[in-house]
TrEMBL record, chain A:
The keyword Hydrolase applies. This is Hydrolase TatD. GO terms for molecular function: hydrolase activity, acting on ester bonds. It comes from Sandaracinomonas limnophila. The lineage of its organism: Bacteria, Pseudomonadati, Bacteroidota, Cytophagia, Cytophagales. Pfam families: TatD_DNase.
UniProtKB/TrEMBL annotation, chain B:
It comes from the Bacteria. InterPro entries: EboA_dom. This is Uncharacterized protein. It comes from Sandaracinomonas limnophila.
Length: 334, 289
């Protein structure tokens, strides 16, 4: 997408845009001491620089949903390796920066359209859904809103019920309003408790219905194609903080892993209470996904705790599992 | 007595009734059910340390792991059942599936208890893969307090394990069989490695030099000389210990020249060097943090 293109905003030219001073601010100064939980971020597509920045900005835990990697997969083995990396390599990489890494596992909507492969993927999902630190089925839902997407969305809601896991629902970019309504109607038809379902990528047009029907409403702060954080401030002003959460969905596209801390700072500037900020940038995501029984806040709230099962003779061999920091401002690389 | 029966006794002595009931409900399952129970243990079993030393000694007297996590031990139990109750081919199919889909703690349990298996031939490639892992705790599971490499790795794989351990600044003294499997190829590679490190103004952990003792040659003797000249007392201690334990003619002159240093370290041994040492010269010692 052209970088100069401005996403048409519902608030374009309204009070908020006029009221915000556009001179650069050091947003970090507004969020000192705050802790954040990003319930949707694709770290597989990000660098160690991002991990450092996340840790520095106060992000203590993240959830990485299984998604479309950009390049379509052609065989089961590449799905398997991807799911394994979400519970293995990426979890380790994150731990090196002191960030607790969880994931949701699922067959994404785009690749649900390859029926032969989708059948094979469905076979291996139960194995992954029962693993430690897998906090939901996700991200699943509609993209093109095809019959095959619906088939596998329904099948995966049944898996979520069987394993008592929350569902992280991706709502489509195109025809979003209808796609969101259809996703919710199907979930309710399958008899899943709406508080076990996180409807993601909401906007001003979808939020009311999502909240009214008892679902969690997640908002992705993502330049150009999803929500901007000024609009997010208005949402929280209007709807409060109950069952609302923000995420970055940072991935291989032009996205911003700092979306949550930046949004928190902007909320602070606009006078939203710290309690409400804490709920939409930390607590609600924690509460929603802790319904999986797989999240212990004590594991990360005061710094990442060493996993007891990774000790040898009661000692950790690693130096606390942390990587040494490098001084990025130095011209020397040693 | 079967391994599963021995493990049952340990589990009964240490786990809660709820945990034991769950294990009982799974233990008679099909191979697939046992494999799934291996995975599910992470969600069902309470995490705590259990003493396993006495049991492991009966499997292999070198096996010096003192404790392990209850979840890992329950996983080991299901693997043992899978092996005892099913044909080799079925065991192989499921152990491969478990390795290929494992999250980190599952990988650790699989690797930590490889030596419970009677089929080292089908798991040895997994053990070598663990050495290749860059996930610290998975590497540690094969490297430390684990008799499998000592018993089954050929020399090249063994040397790779030792070198990677040193390269990654890890404590080699926790490797079982470290002295017994010293070899000349490893000693010569270590000497080369030290030269590269020194050229880069980096350190070599002092205890590494215990590995060269039976294989002193002209080149390695020069390395020992350099250690005596080091400002780091740990290097001087390592040089002294090498001199005391070697009968090599190459060291005679060095011993005479450095007799006062060697005397200073009377009563010291390699255990005094069994510490994590940062390899990057001048960097703050992060091993204590």
């Amino acid at each position: 997408m052209c970088q100069n293109h401005k996403n048409p905003s519902h608030f374009e030219g309204t009070e908020i845009e006029k009221s915000v001073d556009l001179t650069p601010v050091n947003y970090q100064s507004y969020i000192q001491g705050m802790k954040f939980f990003d319930p949707h971020i694709h770290m597989t597509s990000r660098t160690t620089d991002d991990y450092e920045a996340l840790a520095d900005a106060g992000i203590v835990a993240i959830i990485e949903p299984a998604f479309w990697l950009g390049q379509p997969r052609t065989g089961l083995a590449s799905f398997k390796d991807y799911f394994s990396s979400l519970v293995g390599w990426e979890r380790f990489r994150s731990s090196q920066f002191g960030i607790k890494h969880y994931c949701t596992i699922g067959l994404n909507s785009r690749e649900a359209n390859n029926e032969a492969l989708a059948e094979e993927v469905m076979e291996i999902l139960p194995l992954y859904l029962q693993k430690e630190g897998v906090v939901g089925v996700g991200e699943i839902g509609f993209d093109d809103q095809t019959a095959l997407e619906e088939k596998y969305y329904r099948a995966q809601i049944e898996l979520a019920k069987e394993f008592e896991l929350p569902v992280q629902v991706h709502t489509p970019h195109r025809d979003k309003k209808k796609g969101t309504e259809r996703s919710m109607a199907i979930a309710l038809e399958h008899g899943i408790d709406p508080k076990m379902v996180i409807i993601d990528h909401n906007n001003e047009e979808t939020v009311k219905s999502v909240l009214d029907q008892g679902f969690y409403a997640a908002f992705t702060i993502y330049p150009f194609t999803k929500m901007g954080n000024e609009r997010m401030v208005e949402i929280v002003k209007q709807y409060g903080s109950e069952r609302i959460m923000v995420n970055s969905a940072a991935d291989w596209g032009i996205s911003d892993p700092m979306a949550i801390p930046k949004t928190a700072a902007l909320m602070k500037i606009h006078g939203i209470s710290e309690q409400d900020i804490q709920k939409v940038t930390y607590q609600n995501a924690l509460d929603a996904f802790a319904q999986s029984g797989q999240i212990k806040e004590a594991d990360f709230i005061d710094g990442l705790q060493i996993d007891q099962s990774q000790k040898f003779n009661g000692n950790t061999v690693l130096r606390g599992g942390q990587s040494p920091r490098i001084d990025k401002s130095s011209i020397f690389i040693r | 007595m079967k391994k599963s029966a021995e493990l049952t006794k340990i589990l009964q002595a240490n786990l809660s009734d709820v945990n034991l009931q769950w294990i009982n409900s799974k233990k008679k399952g099909e191979a697939k059910d046992l494999a799934l129970a291996f995975v599910l243990a992470g969600r069902k079993i309470e995490s705590k340390e259990i003493s396993v030393f006495d049991f492991l000694q009966t499997i292999d007297p070198n096996w010096n792991l003192e404790t392990c996590n209850a979840i890992s031990l329950v996983r080991a139990y299901f693997l043992v059942l899978l092996e005892e109750n099913y044909e080799k081919e079925i065991f192989q199919k499921w152990i491969n599936e478990l390795f290929e889909t494992a999250e980190i703690n599952e990988s650790i349990a699989l690797i930590q208890f490889l030596s419970l298996s009677s089929y080292p031939d089908i798991v040895i490639s997994r053990a070598k893969d663990a050495v290749r892992s860059n996930i610290g705790s998975i590497f540690d599971a094969i490297a430390f307090n684990n008799p499998f490499p000592f018993n089954y790795f050929e020399e090249a794989a063994w040397n790779q394990l030792i070198l990677k351990c040193i390269f990654n600044d890890k404590p080699i003294h926790q490797i079982i069989g470290l002295n017994e499997r010293r070899n000349i190829a490893l000693a010569e590679t270590l000497s080369d490695f030290a030269h590269e490190r020194w050229a880069a103004h980096r350190r070599v952990p002092s205890q590494v030099w215990r590995l060269v003792i039976p294989f002193i040659n002209d080149e390695i003797a020069k390395d020992i000389e350099r250690l005596f000249l080091s400002e780091d007392e740990k290097d001087q201690l390592a040089a002294s210990l090498v001199c005391l334990e070697s009968e090599s003619a190459y060291l005679k002159g060095l011993i005479e020249q450095n007799s006062s240093k060697i005397k200073k370290f009377e009563g010291f041994n390699w255990s005094h060097l069994e510490v994590n040492e940062p390899i990057y010269t001048g960097q703050e010692d992060v091993s204590k943090s």
